[in-house]
Amino acid sequence: MSTSTKDTGKTKELAFYYPNPMWYNGDWVKNLILFFDGVALLVPKYMKDRPEEVDPAIVEGLRHHNLLHIIEPEKAVDKIATEQLATAMTDIITSGALDSLAKPGTPFHELSMSRLGYYGDEGLARMIFEELKRRGLAKETKDGVSIPMHPMVRSLVLVLLAQILRPYGEELGVELSPATDMPKLVQALHDLLALKASSSTGHVVAFDLNTVSVDLGAVPIDEVLDFRRENLLAHRQYCLAVRKFAYELSRMTDKERENAFEKRQAELEEIARDLRRRARKAWKKPASFALTLTGAAVTLTTGNPLGAALSVGAALLGYQSQEKKDMGAYSYLFSARTRFG
């Protein structure tokens, strides 16, 4: 780990990015800083410079604030983790679920041998490799540190590791919460293999952000952190509520989980409708309403109706306190949407 994660207060919760060594969407990573104490990446030693090469600006900002944490698979994917990975992969491989992927001309992508478990239990890691190779889903290493592998199988290994390595956070004094900016790929794997969907605070936050859009593309990390400090109580309430919801999801059936997310989305949309209602009522108070439009003017010009409604509606809260709707744990989320929408 590149930086210290020990905290004298509560355990730090890091967004554990998967399935690649680096994120695909830099702006999405900045959004995570609103809700997590940092971002963790699983980066092999031979790729140690990859983060700076791919996204130097955001990486530098994260490092400056001690928000980027590098987890080395050479240490993290130990014997126990390799055994768990081998068990999961063996079940999937022997079921024949991957056989249809082997097609001539498919471009393979590299997977570090460390992430397949060669440092944890080379025998088990080689067994996985040989089974994949026999099915045309992996090839012999060319550089001695990585294995060419079918892209879907490679992603499968990394999706499994995102869950398998969560206990490793205890050794680092943090909690690892898997989070991805490639949900369609992950869902495709779940559908292909009929895997049980997993839930973490990272997944719940991603769902909320997708429902109530927050765009930090042009916002400096310093400003994001200032917002968190200014709204610390609301931030903690939201995070606790998200953890509780994620725990409840982990004990649900797929259908129950689907219903729970539908209910959550309905709650968020109801808050948005309430803000729009108060925005309409405000037109009857032109003097007061004119004062509230300034903060929402930019959003109104972007063509985002929901964003405009949230910005105007939230601004109205300043002088219509008697009509305030109790947003509960969602208040932090909507405050972020108003500030950074």
Structure description:
With 341 residues, the chain is of the alpha/beta class. It has two domains: 198 residues, no CATH class; 143 residues, no CATH class. It contains 17 helices and six strands. β1, α1 and β2 form a beta-alpha-beta unit.
Helicity range of the residues?
Answer: 40-55%
The arrangement of helices and strands along the chain is: EHEHHEHHEHEHHEHHHHHHHHH
Distance between the termini: 34 Å
Rg for CA atoms: 22 Å
Strand order of the largest sheet: 3-2-1-6
Structural class: alpha/beta
Give the CA-based shape.
globular
Beta-strand portion reads: 5-15%
Largest sheet features: 4 strands, parallel
* Mean of residue pLDDT values: 82
How many individual domains? Answer: 2
Q: How many β strands by DSSP? A: 6
**Low-confidence runs of at least 5 consecutive residues:** 1-8, 286-323
